[in-house]
Known about the structure:
Layout: H1 7-25, H2 34-60
Amino acid sequence: MKHYWSATLNDLKMNSKDAYDDLRVLSGKPKYGCVFDIMKDAKYKYKPAVRDAIRSYEDQFSDDS
């Protein structure tokens, strides 16, 4: 497990994974529409949250602080 990982990131990851596995794959992998939008929304909440967590963690140990 990464040092910057949190319960919030875990929840976002599970939401993203569920949206992909349960919705998109079972719906025939649509490339547009409501199911596609739900999957992309979950992904675009998860990915920036991970990037922000990494940056916050690295900023704690920077020499500039």
